[in-house]
Amino acid sequence: MAVIVFEDVWKIYRTGRGVEYPALRGVSLEIGEGEFVALLGPSGSGKTTLIYLAGGIDVATRGRVVVNGTDLGRLSESERAKWRRRNVGIVFQFYHLVPTLTVLENVLLPMDLAGHPPKAERRRRALELLDLVGMRDKADKFPSQLSGGEQQRVAIARALAADPPLLLADEPTANLDTENKERVVELLVEANRLGKTVLYATHDPGLASRAGRIVEIRDGRIVRS
Q: Do residues 47 and 85 lie in contact, with contact meaning Cβ atoms separated by under 8 Å?
C-alpha cells in the first residue's frame, strides 16, 4: 500500500516582484508502507520542498499529495497541523529543539500536542526513546548543552514520540561530522526496523546507499525512482 502519493505535483514560489520559481515540476511518486527511501539530489534540487509537502508543512501549487490516505490539499492549515501531530514525525536539518525545554521535555512535547499515548505512559515512552538514541543520561540537559550530533539524536527521538507511521528527515546529517552522520543514519535504519516508513533527503550518495531505495531529484524533477 502506498503511504505517500505525489500526482503531477508542481510547487511554484513567487518573489516579491512577481517572478515565479518552480521548485517542483510535475513530480509523480509513490512510496510504499514500510519502505526506507533516500531522496538524493544537490542543493536546490527540490528535496526540501518535497519533504515539506509530504509532511503537510506546505501545499502544492498544482497536483495532488496524498499521505496515509489523506489528500493534504483539501485540508486547511489548522487541519494539516492536527493531522501532522498523529501521522508524521519530522527531523529538520537544524534540529529545531525548543531551547527553553530540557531534552526530556522536548521529547514529551509531541505526545502532549497529539494527546497520544495516554498521559500516564508518556514519561516512560520518552525515556525509552532517549535510550534508543543513546541520550537518556542527558534527559535533564538543555539543547544548548548538547553537541550538534546529540541534538539531532534528540530530534529523532522527538519525531518518534507520538508513534507516527511516517518519519521524514530533511538533510539530517548535513551539519554533522562523519561519526555522527553514521550514527544518525543508523537511527533512521532502526526506526524503519521498528515499522516506520522513512523518507530522508540527502546530497550524499554514500549515505543514500544505506536506504532500501533511492529516488533521485534534479531541478525539481524525479530522474530516478
A: no
**pTM to 2 decimal places:** 0.93
Phi and psi at 36, nearest 5°, equal -120, 105
As a whole number, mean pLDDT of residues 131-153 equals: 96
Q: Measured between alpha carbons, how far is 11 from 173 in angstroms, rounded to an integer?
A: 25
Indicate the pairing of strand 62-67 with strand 2-14: antiparallel
Report which of residues 26 and 177 the model is more confident about.
26
How many residues does the structure list for the chain?
225
Cβ atoms of 178 and 153 within 8 Å: the answer is no
Q: How many CB atoms lie within 10 A of CB 106?
A: 26
Beta-carbon count within 10 A of 115 CB:
11
The residues, any chain, with a CB within 8 Å of residue 113's CB and separated by 6 or more, are 85, 162
Q: How far is CA 212 from the centre of its chain?
A: 17
CA 60 to mean position of chain CA atoms: 17
Q: Helix 148-160 to helix 103-114 angle, to the nearest 10 degrees?
A: 20
**DSSP H helix total and E strand total for the chain:** 7, 10
What pLDDT is recorded for position 23?
Answer: 97
Asked if 175 and 122 count as a contact pair (C-beta separation under 8 A), the reply is no
Which domains can be identified in the chain, with CATH numbers?
Answer: 2-224 (3.40.50.300)
Question: In this predicted structure, what is the pLDDT of residue 17?
Answer: 79
Query: What percent of the chain has a predicted confidence (pLDDT) above 70?
Result: 100
Judge whether residue 175 has pLDDT over 90.
no
* Dihedral sign, Cα of residue 191, residue 196, residue 200, residue 204: positive
